[in-house]
Design goal:
This protein is an alpha/beta fold. The chain has eleven helices and nine strands. The strands form two sheets. The chain has a seven-stranded mixed β-sheet, with helices on both faces. α6 links the parallel β4 and β5. α3 packs across α4 and α3 crosses α7. The radius of gyration is 20 Å and the shape is globular. 47% of the residues are buried.
Length: 347
């Protein structure tokens, strides 16, 4: 039996043609990357972008541009991908975890405030699974705000303002499991020219002085060409995800599974349901046996890798109770029904 993948990028003839065009151009001119950066910045209404080889690199270089480094701290949600943890460590700063809310699984402003010190360089707000964090209270903390937008590109707040436009910069990842996919890659987007210039300087070694640690971390031309096509298709991707989310929500009525909140302006980078009981390895194995890749949205809470970090009861409860269902434009009816069947049998 063929396994229904949890994530699947929507790639086709237009992406293949764009990649081929980049190859024919010689790959090293930088025109495709510049075009992708400009298109992404226009989409959000920001000044510009800096494309790099991964989302982790994008966050690390953006944080360095903000002044994160040895002796500094960066606040992260305890319930988030370990790539954030790695990005902070790449700068030399210390990651500091803060607990999250149960209802939307996003960073708690109150908990972030408790974790602030005179060494705090930034707070990273992950718009988890496509729903906005509490932006205005976070901005009032008075420390630089970074928006992690990989699962929320195209989402807006209650004033119809696009997420990614509130902080010092926004960061995107273009992995195969994202809203947009170039295979790998990431981007920093900002209206602060100093941040953009710093990231562009740090992403290329060239023949520059060796005193500053730089990386050969630019995005390839083929990836950027694919990214531009993917960005042009984003509205249709988001619409398809909304349709599947509506189908899931309707089908789960009357079951023990709790569907994600219908928050205004959200997109569905993930469709995460909550169980009335603890998710066990046996339960996860039952989905695999049924041929459906139903997985934990976050493999392990960040604070598990921070000895002595303290207690994070909500993040741990969310981790114990949450599952992510397959949702992407290429999902098909038969696969959708098989996922639902497996989910209802597991309830």
């Amino acid at each position: 039996m063929k396994i229904i993948p949890h994530s699947l990028p929507t790639l086709g003839a237009r992406e293949a043609a764009a990649a081929a065009r980049a190859v024919r151009s010689g790959l090293a001119e930088g025109k495709e990357a510049a075009a992708f950066e400009a298109a992404a910045a226009r989409f959000l209404g920001l000044h510009g972008g800096a494309a790099v080889n991964s989302g982790t690199t994008a966050l690390a270089l953006g944080l360095k541009a903000l002044g994160a480094g040895p002796g500094k701290e960066v606040i992260l949600p305890a319930y988030a991908r370990t790539a954030l943890f790695q990005a902070v460590r790449m700068t030399g700063a210390e990651p500091v975890a803060a607990d999250v809310h149960w209802h939307d699984m996003n960073l708690s402003v109150a908990q972030a405030r408790r974790r602030m010190t005179h060494r705090t360089a930034a707070v990273v707000a992950v718009h988890g699974f496509g729903a906005s964090v509490e932006l205005e209270p976070l901005l009032k903390l008075g420390i630089p705000l970074v928006e992690e937008l990989s699962q929320a590109l195209g989402a807006v707040d209650y004033n119809r303002r696009k997420l990614g436009t509130f902080g010092a910069f926004a960061v995107l990842s273009f992995s195969a499991s994202g809203l947009l996919s170039t295979g790998q890659g990431g981007m920093v987007l900002s209206s602060d020219r100093r941040i953009l210039d710093a990231v562009r300087d740090l992403r290329a070694c060239g023949d520059r002085p060796a005193a500053v640690l730089r990386l050969d971390a630019g995005m390839t031309e083929a990836q950027a060409a694919v990214g531009s096509v993917q960005l042009s298709r984003l509205p249709s991707f988001l619409a398809a995800r909304r349709r599947w989310a509506d189908r899931y929500r309707e089908a789960l009525l009357g079951t023990p599974w709790e569907a994600p909140l219908q928050i205004y302006g959200r997109v569905y980078g993930r469709f995460v349901v909550k169980s009335p009981r603890t998710i066990t390895d046996a339960l996860l194995a039952s989905f695999e046996k049924a041929g459906a890749a139903v997985v934990r949205p976050v493999r392990r809470p960040l604070h598990w890798d921070l000895p002595g970090a303290g207690a994070f009861p909500v993040a741990e409860r969310v981790w114990r109770r949450s599952l992510s269902l397959p949702i992407y434009p290429l999902l098909r009816e038969e696969a959708f029904r098989r996922v639902l069947h497996a989910l209802k049998n597991a309830a």
